[in-house]
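Morning, I've got a small favour to ask if you have a moment. It would help a lot if you went through both lines with me. Thanks so much in advance, here it is.

***
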Amino acid sequence: MYEASAGLFVPYLRNLSALLDKGVAYAETRKFNPAVLLGMRMAPNMYDLAQQIGEACRHATVAPALLAEREPVALPAVEHDMAGLQARIATSIEFIESLPRAAIDAAAERNVFFKLKNGTELPFTGRTLLLTFSVPQFFFHVTTAYDLLRHAGVELVKKDFLGRK
C-alpha cells in the first residue's frame, strides 16, 4: 500500500516539479512571463495548469493521509505563480514522506472516506481508494499538466514525464 501511494506519488511529484522548471526555462528563453503558462487550459471548462498542479498535490497528499489515519497537510489556495506551486509540490512531498509506512501498509481493507470539495464523502477501502480513485485522479492531473506544457511549446519528452531512472 505504501509503494502504491507514497512510493508512486513522490517520484511523480518530483517529475512534475522538473516539468515546471522546464516551463520556466522555456518562457525565459522566449522572453515571456512564465506565469502565462499557469493560466493555460485544454478547454474553457477545465482547470488551468496551476489548478492541475494543485489537484495533483491534493490527491497525492490526501490519499496517503487517509491511509495513515492522519490529517492531510493544509495547502494554501492555489496561486498562479511558479514559486508558490513549486513550494506546494515540495510541501506535499515532505508531508507524504513523513507518514508512517506501517500504517499505510495496514490500510488495504480499512474503510476510508474521501471528502470532495463540496463536502460529499465517498466511501472506499484503502485499496479501492488508491486503485480506483486517487491514483487515476493524480495521473489525470499530472498528465494534463504535462500536456498543457507540451502544447505551449515546452520541449518535453516521455522521459520528462516518467522521470530519469
Notes: The first helix runs from residue 6 to 29.
